[in-house]
Amino acid sequence: MIPMKSNNWENHATILNVVRETENDSDDVFVQIKWPDGTDSYHISSEVYQKCPLKLIQFYEQHLVIKN
Fold it and tell me: Cα separations (Å) of 18 from 2, 5, 21, 68?
């Protein structure tokens, strides 16, 4: 269940992946989200930044690799 009418997805979304569009010379970045009912969906990153910014920051922090 995607809470489309809600402006806050923090309590609903689990971010699974972040992918960059490579077709059509696009620079778009999409975020794959898993919802409580088990469905997955893709959303452009600008929408995810607005609706669940903390989840996105947590995802990036968990996947951050620092090289010396």
Answer: 18, 23, 10, 24
Which pLDDT belongs to residue 67?
A: 92
CATH of domain 14-62: 2.40.50.40
Alpha-carbon distance of 68 to 53, in angstroms, equals: 28
Task: Look up the pTM and report it.
Answer: 0.82
Going by C-beta distance under 8 Å and a sequence separation of 6 or more, which residues neighbour residue 57?
A: none
Q: For the CA atoms of the chain, what is the radius of gyration? A: 13
Q: Which residue has the tokens 């947590």?
A: 58
Q: Cα–Cα distances in Å, from 3 out to 22, 31, 48, 63?
A: 28, 16, 12, 26
How far apart are alpha carbons 60 and 7 in whole angstroms? 21
